[in-house]
Sequence to fold (278 residues):
Amino acid sequence: GKARNKNSLQFYSQAIKDASLQVVAIEHDLRKAIENNEFELYLQPIIDLERNKILKAEALIRWNHPKKGLIFPDKFIPIAEKSELINTIGHWVINSVCLLLKKLSELDFKIKISINLCPTQVLEESLFSYIHRCIKKHKIDPSLLELEVTEGVLVHDYKIAERLLSKVRAIGMSVSVDDFGTGYSSLSYLKKLPLDFVKIDQSFVKDIVVDDNDKAIVRAVIAMAHNLNLGVTAEGVETKEQLSFLKDNACNSVQGYLFSHPVRFELFLELLQSKLNT
Ligand code: C2E
Ligand code: CA
Ligand code: CA
Ligand code: CA
Fold:
């Protein structure tokens, strides 16, 4: 009856209040997280299927919160995206990746690292000059740096994205389209934009062994990407069966729990020296 409706309404409005209080709390803590050195980059190996070796890794941010413990990016990146905080965090990520690349090259490892950019970061005017400054400061080989951008910003902000991608590729960096297949039906941007790789979203890889539609989609994406001279990376590879389908269909590289979770830098170094990589 009425009373019950009123109660559930109160319940919902209380839940909304709690949720927005949580957002405010996270935003407040995020502002101090950089100066308190609470962020950490984990690396997930990307395995080249032709050479059967780790040639690349994706940098994935983690937040070691002093009270709440380990927080994953899905919990705070969307909140940071609503303010200028995302650019501050993004700069920290870029600088930190350059430091990791420097350590890797000092150890004689030639490994590429890719950085995730959300749409707001792609639109930031000073992004390129920041990247360029970091490369110079740490004396990084730009060909070891890759940017991952999602389809949405490539379509909606084509001009701005094009300008950024042209500049980063002109200095030798590479670019991949992240979460490919989840967003857009307009594929014309693939042909026009300066790109290097397509990353097939894990939602297509998940049921690839049993679902004929997913099989067809993945085969079509690989064929199309290769026709456009783009390499293909499959994300979220968890089983040997998924891997062998991808190998059989000429996918270039794979990433997923079958090989490794994203790991701390020290553990990543161990992976580079391990069986997986010889
Ligand atoms: P993404 O770029 O699509 O990253 C892939 C996500 O899939 C990662 O989650 C990774 O840990 C997870 N993953 C990897 N292998 C497997 C697998 O075999 N199975 C399954 N189920 N999942 C797998 P994570 O690290 O929680 O990151 C989530 C998202 O947060 C990323 O999605 C990316 O969009 C964003 N993100 C992470 N780091 C950064 C960053 O430094 N900057 C920005 N702007 N966004 C970031
Ligand atoms: Ca990514
Ligand atoms: Ca992805
Ligand atoms: Ca994603």
